[in-house]
Model the fold of this input.
Amino acid sequence: MKPNDIQVSEHFTLCEFDDKANGNLVVLHPLTIERLEKLHLALSESMGRPIAILITCGTRTPRTNNQLAKLLGWTDDGGLVSKTSKHLPRFGGIAADLQVLDIEFGQLMPIRTVAQLAASFFDTIIDHYPTHIHVDLRDSANPGAPSND
Ligand SMILES: [Zn+2]
Done:
């Protein structure tokens, strides 16, 4: 069996959220899945046809985050990778990067359109990346976690 090949909700399997670069570690907050399913429904209804949410990053181990920063730079230095990325396991599985596929037309939905709908279900949306949007639940999912950035 493929690691984490476990259905966790109607449209998602656990392996979509694991860190394939470093041991398939996965941390996934139940609220993240609940909100992603709500987003799936909202996107399908808004489009009036089937869509698929493609998770491009869920859990990111510190090691993978460091590797990514070597490529894209730390945000402190004007790059794209945060030292306190909400994808890190210590935040409890509250973040996802995603794209949305319009199944019928076989093309990705515009990032801005996805971001506008996602704003109803997530605390933070980052939509300035060229390839995906970032969503997380830094305020509502983890009342005990540090959240000052
Ligand atoms: Zn992200």
Summary: The chain has three helices and five strands. The chain has one domain: 17-136.
